[in-house]
Amino acid sequence: MNSIKKHDLATLGACAVLFAIVQTLLFVDFIGPFWELNIILILINVILSVSLNLINGYTGQFSIGHAGFLAVGAYTGAIITVKLGLPFELALVVGTLCSALLGFLIGLPTLRLNGDYLAIATLGLGEIIRICILNIEYVGGASGLMGIPRFTTFAWAFWITVFIIFVIKNFKNSAPGRCCLAIRENEIAAETMGIDTTKYKVMAFTIGAGFAGTAGVLFAHYFYIAHPASFTFMRSFDILTMVVLGGLGSMTGAITGAVLLTAISAVLAEYPEWRMVIYSLTLIILMINRPQGLFGSKELSLKMFRLGGSDNGRATESK
Amino acid sequence: MKAWKKAVGLTCTAALMTAMLTGCGGTKKDAAKSDEVVIGAHFELTGGVANYGKSTLNGVQLAIDQVNAKGGVLGKKIKLVQGDNKSEPAEAGNIATKLITQDKAVVLIGPATSGCVSASIPIATANKVPLMAPVATAPSITVEKDGKVKPFIFRACFIDPFQGQVMAVFAEKTLKVKNVAILFDSSSEYSKGLTDVFTKTLEDNGGKVVAKEAFLAKDVDFKSTLTKIKASNPEAIYVPAYYEEVSKIIKQAREVGLSCPILGSDGWGSPKLAAIAGNEALNNTYFCSAYSSQDKEPTVQNFIKDYKAKYKTDPDNFSIHGYDAAMVVVEAIKRAGSTDGVKIAQELSKMKDFPVATGKFTVDANHNPVSGAVIIELKDGVQTFKEKITL
């Protein structure tokens, strides 16, 4: 027990150091506005992929409606700050809660489905949310909600990301988290062992949806605008790609996937003609060589770098 | 084998991390070489509306090439740096930031669609860099909600209300119709805005909207809606939308037996319209446009000749606006005598009767160009000049 706490504290310390370094670089203007923007975009994508990994990777449900929850967070957050003039902190909380509530309401009926059916239901949900927003004049309809102040700073984005990663990591190691893993491995067996599968599936789905909402609030308050075109199903696929690329069921994998894909997209901004070609080729090559994703279901840790591969006996390569 | 696979993964990760870090370092390198004036071309080059972005960019590129061939501006060559916003507003903010802060663009031309322009405005304004939107038609782009003009934002095309008015006037004066049905795209601000203005102008002049039906972008089957419209016996149908849906609507309208005139907006202006709808179905349809390729004005004809020589295709509305936008921007830089954003913006707002391809370019108090519009009739799939309307 104590060693786990120590480990967490050490990680927190490492995060603080990383934060200090990047913040200093930003302060002395070594990292220009373009890369500052992309670092924040990376952090937002990390939140999205880590929260989707909780649903798709740990609980084994196939959800592809994450952009919908992102949209709900973005718009509720923007309503709180722009329309009601309340503080950003409140927007973060309300955005998260609204998204989580929606996730809960949608999760209850749909999580009784499994496999392909859930995928279709969540895909539909994402589109329903987008079409609803398109037709609500109060939030700007098709022209989007403009004039959102830029409240998201690197510090906000960074510490919220760290917090969310910490919560999801601990959730995975808790009793409900173990139940989720059991459901992923074999739902029938889990049910036989007395696990209320729907309850835990809904729990994971709600948490994942809520954190996607948090990402939405950060997103809208960085890009000045919440626009329906930012929340299409392509966005859901982007997030899914990050998770699958990193390895379904691996937290560090999800983080790496998000960092990699966002960074590739930013680096290739110089070459608009080649961007999508290179981006797609990268995905194809990685998927051919590592169909289980970069990390499979393993976690990246210092142990991995030890010679001899002491972790050979642990998780199997292909799930 | 396992170790090898792990190595591949780690190498890829490491390689990309390095790529990213070198990118970070890159911000320092360019303080804009002194022998070049950098203009950012910020367009939708991939994604949903890539067609508009590319056409407009072609026009911009042609203009910049011509200026450079004549020695550039301020004694320097112009360097056009392209950026692709994937047709997505948040990405538009990202690219605007890149072009302004990384590439040190002194002016931005683009994006094409109003949504992407809106997302770029805060960034352009914060950095005091003028933004010229060649084809974004939403009125809210250049003017704040409280009526204040945005100092750094300009556009090179007529705005939505204008087009709607022109079409309503055309319907009543030329076609002499009173009962019009409207079919619009409820997912597009452009379409909704046009519908409102058209309805108002028509009703003010004694006409009547007999049916108002909506569809969503990407819909493919409109037959049930069209049958409903047919039941209301319209004398004309107004479809203010983009060519992708419009072409299918026209085809299906003729199939369900609606032979009345069909009116539209500048979103129709693409050769693909005839390719999808078929020449026959397009007879008796009209749309509003900033220019017609059959306009005999030498400026228009010269533009078309140059464009064809460079790209081997016909220019569309987007290309000519892109061309005009770039020409006006270059002129403003020349008049300002510097690459200072504030001065360029001042010169842009004072622009009057500057000769461009579509005619004379004058910027009004709201940073919109003052212009007339032409009505184009489609005859056997060919765009023919019908008349010029000035309100």
TrEMBL record, chain A:
Transmembrane domains' residue ranges: 12-31, 37-55, 67-86, 92-111, 118-136, 148-168, 202-224, 244-269
InterPro entries per record: ABC_transp_permease, LivM-like
* MF-aspect GO terms: branched-chain amino acid transmembrane transporter activity
| Entry keyword annotation includes Chaperone | no
Enumerate the subcellular locations listed in this protein's record, separating them with semicolons.
Cell membrane
Q: Name one GO cellular component term.
A: plasma membrane
Q: How does it sit in the membrane?
A: Multi-pass membrane protein
Keywords assigned by UniProt, alphabetized: Cell membrane, Membrane, Transmembrane, Transmembrane helix
Task: Assign the protein's first listed, main location to one coarse class.
Answer: membrane
> Which PANTHER family does this entry report, sorted A to Z?
HIGH-AFFINITY BRANCHED-CHAIN AMINO ACID TRANSPORT PROTEIN BRAE, HIGH-AFFINITY BRANCHED-CHAIN AMINO ACID TRANSPORT SYSTEM PERMEASE
Full protein name: High-affinity branched-chain amino acid transport system permease protein LivH
Organism lineage:
unclassified sequences, metagenomes, ecological metagenomes
